[in-house]
Amino acid sequence: MKLENTNSVFNLGDTSFRRKTLLDDYKVILPILKNHMEKVDRWGENNEGQAIFYHSIINQTDLFDRDENDEPAKRARTLTNALVKPGLINANRQLSEVALNWINNKVKRPDKLEQWLTLKIDNIVFLRQCFKLRVYDTNKTNYFYPFRIAIELLISYEDIPEFHFFNIIHSIEPKMDDDKIREIIYNYHKVANNFQSFEEFYEENLSAGKSITPELLIKVENLFSKSEVDEQEFYEVFYNRKSTNAQKLYYKFYQAITAFKNNPSDQNLKTLIEISRNSSIKKAFGYGMNPFKLTRKKSISVEEFLELNFDNLLLSENSILFFNQFMSSKRSDLIIEYSDMTKRIFNLTGIFSFSNKLVNLTQPWLYRKITATYRDRIFLTGEEDYESYEEDINSLFYKDQSLMEILLISDTELERIEAEIRKEHGIPDKVSIVEAFDEMSEQKFRSFIESIFVESKVILLLKLFKNRSPENDKKIQKLVSDAATVPTIFEYIIAIAWYYLSEKNFSIRKSVNLSLDGNFLPLTHAAGGDGDIIIKYSDFILMLEVTLMDRNAQKRGELEPVIRHATNLTVKESDKEVLTIFIADELDQNVVNLFRAASIVQLESTQQKGQQTDGVNIFSLSIEEIIHLLERKIEYQKIVKGIREHFSIKPSFVKTGWREDVLEKLLN
Fold first, then answer.
1. Cα angle 536, 583, 612; round to 5
2. Angstrom distance (rounded) from CA 29 to CA 37
3. If you placed Cys at 280, which of 246, 382, 454, 646 could pair as Cys (CB 3.0 to 4.6 Å)?
4. How far apart are alpha carbons 651 and 632 in whole angstroms?
């Protein structure tokens, strides 16, 4: 991406598409855009075609309200801008190789280094793109890598406050070189060790005032050199692209300060305090707060005010300091505004932990090892033509490359690192390093579940799913994560519920087919077309298929995919018994019976053509019944035994009520 001017802050989102459930939304939008671009010659300025695309989004998805039709072409452009930033499409809305492979489940397989990270393919797609992500200056030549700088910062320090983290990342400038950025990161140790406040560190290392161009400074000096500041010239310097009303407030604020400095009367102070409480003034001059210190009393005297604000730069006789504070405060406001999307994009990679407003890497020791070994090639900044990198759909930015290819790491070099890691972590040669890392991740996930999602909380969430409403959906996302849709969270919670029913007797991290963030919270259902939750016990395989579709839609939306997934898994695991349990809020009786009948029908795999199985065993449970099993602490062995005994008898005719007969035995 390219900064608009020297004082801009990079923005990984777009004002009209600040979605929280990014992964799911990207997966919805990209196929529709692909189909649209196949029908038109080019995106260009074809307003009619762009409007058609936007109407397709409205009609085919529930991303936006159906009545959102104002300026559809403009909405189409701003909507797809959110896909340009991470390199899923270019400015001409051509889908990148990365995006095409992602939506077609053909993403390049994880290389050896990526396997060590124990991530799902969705995470890996964004990890690769973030490593390639550049922020260019207005000259379209100099750039920096914000994601790489973030990693460099986090391998140096733990528990960095989010406010510090995003202010540093967003205040880096493309004109800086690697040495300068590493110097800034090193200097943060004074803050980390409580030798310096963050504000002092920021002023010394990253102050926005240092970005003011000589040309702009001349304009400011000319503006304030006159006995009376010209209003129109003031607007040219104290800008607000979104609101001319805000600019008028800035001018009134300056007039109020000038009047008070010239005549510090009670009335002038009252006027100044009144305007200082405006939200636009707080953002532009007070870093989101009132720019002046005030008492809690209803009134404050001139003497008290001056004493409290004796060092306030806004009251200085040097009006340049007034401008500097405006620039710094506006930049701070932009960082606060844009850091949310930076956090959400970074979160998709699965390597960051954002917990309790503190930022950490999930495997800092591994990244520390990689960056220390390859510091001479993992650059933080560089120079290259912007057009050839971000506008050409054939550039490396849009190619489906693995992490080792991006960082130019060879297999031989990685073997040396592997030997060092084995020695440092005591991993024997007979255990693969991937297995060792998998086990580390499993134990962390279990600890997280058992501390955050205790059984009582799982039951509470299941009851909210059972009684769905807009209010309960909000509660669910608040209790779990607003980065995932409610159906995705349902799948996640069912997996945890079965984890408790199974007495924790399976690998939950390997069983859930979900992409997770660095805190082990759900993001989206992973690509691949497999079942929702696949649990491999020692003597059989259990697949859980879950849905929040109401029973009227289950035959249309769930019957075929559940039978297909059960068939594919049964054929694939032909040497083991496979049992499928379908879980929904309410169950459609016809669907329940058709699932039962599938046990006496020969079915063919869609993944292994020509391979067949003599039926699949699919049982059905409701959310209420799962809650009942948890509350009564009925273990999975009893549940599975009862279901398996029933399916051992092949029926000649499926009659309604068969499921209830099995349930009665299970629950009693």
1. 55
2. 12
3. 246
4. 30
158 Cβ contact list (under 8 Å, min separation 6): 360, 364
* pLDDT digits 0-9 by tens, 445-503: 999 999 999 999 999 999 999 999 999 999 999 999 999 999 999 999 999 999 999 99
Would you say 597 and 564 are in contact if contact means Cβ atoms under 8 Å apart? no
Tokens of 516: 């997770």
Q: Is the pLDDT of residue 185 over 60?
A: yes
CB 143 within 8 A of CB 383: yes
Q: 120 with 350: CB under 8 angstroms?
A: yes
Q: Which residues sit opposite 161 in a β-bridge? A: 358
Cα separation, 400 vs 390, in Å, equals 15
Q: Helix, strand or coil for residue 95?
A: strand
Cα 636-638-643 angle, rounded to 5 deg: 95
DSSP string, 231-255: HHHHHHHS--TT-HHHHHHHHHHHH
Whether 524 and 23 have beta carbons less than 8 Å apart is answered as: yes
Mean pLDDT across 632-644: 92
CB 640 within 8 Å of CB 505? no
Written as one letter, the residue type at 27 is: K
Q: Does the reported pTM lie above 0.70? A: yes
Q: Looking up tokens 């690998």, which residue turns up?
A: 507
344-357 pLDDT, tens digit per residue, is 999 999 999 999 99
Cα torsion at 613, 617, 622, 623 (round to 10°)? -70
- CA separation for the pair 476, 177 (Å, rounded): 45
Q: How far apart are CA 497 and CA 544, in angstroms?
A: 11
> What type of residue sits at position 391?
E
* HSE value, Cβ hemisphere, 13 Å, CA-based, for 595: 28
Q: pLDDT confidence of 528, banded at 50, 70, 90?
A: low
pLDDT in tens, 545-573: 999 998 889 999 999 999 999 999 999 99
- Range in 117-126, 168-177, 366-375 with the lowest mean pLDDT: 366-375
How open is the CA angle 645-542-454, to the nearest 5 degrees? 110
